[in-house]
Amino acid sequence: MPGWWSGSREDFLSTVPDEISDQLSGEANRDGWEIEREQMTEWRETVGLLQNQVFRNQGVEILRDALSSDKLSFIHGVILEFNFKRRGIRIDAILIGGSNVFVVEFKRSKLTSGDQDQVVNYCINLVEFHDETQ
After folding, report:
1. What is the C-alpha to C-alpha distance for residues 132 and 118, in angstroms, rounded to an integer?
2. Phi, psi of 65 (to 5 degrees)
3. In terms of CB atoms within 10 Å, which of 5, 27, 107, 120 comes out highest?
């Protein structure tokens, strides 16, 4: 799956957020995107959130509840900034666990129905237009 960063769960947990955000920025630049400082900060915070809160079971109840698992060890892959070029979208994070694919979209404000629709749309695009998820 094409992402600006992808790797195993172990790779993700052992890599510091700054290194991951630097790689995201490099890939974005190669794809012709100009990345501002605020985006780099957002990536570092997002990576830290996933590492500390989801995979290490600390805080962020909504993410743990959404994944509905006592242990998250079945998640074996992480893709950040999945670039779905044909559709003109980028998915913040995809977590892969066995035959399950979890789409994660980060928002700083209260979630709206439009935000929920965005994630549903991402899932539909993955199912309909990506061979690996079919």
Report:
1. 21
2. -65, -40
3. 5
